[in-house]
Amino acid sequence: MSQYHCPDAQTVQKLRDIANKLRIHSIQATDASKSGHPTSCCSAAEIMSVLFFNTMRYTIEEPKHPNNDRFVLSKGHAAPILYAAWAEAGLFPESELLKLRKIDSDLEGHPTPRLNFVDVATGSLGQGLSCAAGMAYTGKYFDKADYRVFCLIGDGESAEGSIWEAMAFASHYKLDNLVAIFDVNRLGQSEPTSLQHELEVYRARAEAFGWNALIVDGHSVEELTKTFWAATQVQGKPTCIVAKTFKGQGVPGIADEENWHGKPLGAKSEAAIKAIQENIINKGPHGVSPAPISKTLSPIKMSVQLASPPAYKLGENVATRLAYGTGLVKIGKSNDRVVAMDGDTKNSTFAQKFKIVRQSKNDQVTVVASCVTLFEAMKAADSLAASGVNIRIIDPFTIKPIDAATIIASAQETGGKIITVEDHYAEGGIGSAVSCAVSEQRNIIVKRLYVPEIPRSGPSGELLEKYGISASCIVKAVQSILSA
Ligand SMILES: Cc1ncc(C[n+]2csc(CCOP(=O)(O)OP(=O)(O)O)c2C)c(N)n1
């Protein structure tokens, strides 16, 4: 176990000074844009200062270096302080900060990946921790790298259920490279949060979700440096830092007051900045660099190459998703960082060489089906083939976007006849999407099999039959469309 070395007094003061400079930048930038959230920035100033100038390891020359620690600002409305931190770190001139929210500036009201130091867009509250957990999972299990992931969450935001789904995920996968910081400034947008400063409740909840949880004074750089260090010592669990802060901290008359959410300070700015400046000892450049990234790591393999060249014949037509799937497999063979993700559909996507699932030169009908109905369609195809009728089967993979080109091309090759089959109501599913996709085509008809009423419980085979989406129903539908 490594020893904690408290930063010397000079460094501590520099971190305090940086925090106050970040406050001033946030006030000035939101004043310049006449919009934004300066008080939400002020509560996080020491957290950001310690993270960016003491704890996190990154190279300023390459904000997306694969070995850098990651930072996700889940409370994305505090974007001005994120931008201020990167400007203070030297990524771009401080003067840029005054372009906040201007139409031609990438320093938008909420962070987006248009910026080279932002991995995921945030601002819709509750989403950042899921992204951070995914990054930490990738770091621990795929990259096997030692970069860490930090995620700053608002206390009001922490009421979102998705935060707790991510908490459960992170502890289940023992993401000890993940640190969530709850900025518990007591106030939400329109009123105090339900827990206000009940820090022990936050701690108990985080612990109940399997996290290592630490309460800290979020305005004490000494406590923060120690707590962030402590988080690195914990194995097998993510760490939740419950930081007691005050909204608008540092601004007399505004700190911890209601009705200051999302408002530039305007006429009160000058006095606010003067008050904050009085606390800054080192007025000039702070001269603090971020902690260096790990030197012991071999750089993560970033090259994306096919393991073998494409093997298509000139002029051969190949469905895009088939080519995509084939290409993805080849890329994956050459780079183990390539990850294909889907929503529990790996047995119905390209990963198992699906997209057009079944085809022949003399298909008479195109059947579009998915999940359970896809298997029913396969059974129907076998049964129909025995009587000399071939059908083409497409798994749409997604309905938004729908692969209209493939569906239209298939329909044209199968006499303009399409049957959709879904374990879903008539509206808003495969049938609707396919009908919409072919609506401007001549000579294509769509027959739709779907669940016509509120379904009951029962054995799945009987239910498929009862609601008309079983293999035998597909066979009948094919016979019917062919005889029409
Ligand atoms: C999903 C979602 N709901 C509502 C909002 C609007 N909104 C923006 S900031 C905010 C309050 C956030 O409070 P808190 O998380 O405590 O952050 P603070 O500003 O106090 O740091 C709300 C409700 C949003 N951005 N996203």
Automatic annotation (TrEMBL):
Listed PROSITE patterns: TRANSKETOLASE_1
Keyword flag Transferase: yes
EC number: 2.2.1.1
A Pfam family reported for this protein in Swiss-Prot or TrEMBL: Transketolase_C
Cofactor(s) this protein cannot do without: thiamine diphosphate; Ca(2+)
Domain Transketolase N-terminal: 17-274
Record keyword Nucleotide-binding present: no
Domain annotation Transketolase C-terminal: ranges: 356-472
Alphabetically ordered keywords of this record: Magnesium, Metal-binding, Thiamine pyrophosphate, Transferase
MF terms (GO), sorted A to Z: metal ion binding; thiamine pyrophosphate binding; transketolase activity
Quaternary structure, from the entry: Homodimer.
Name of the protein in its database record: Transketolase
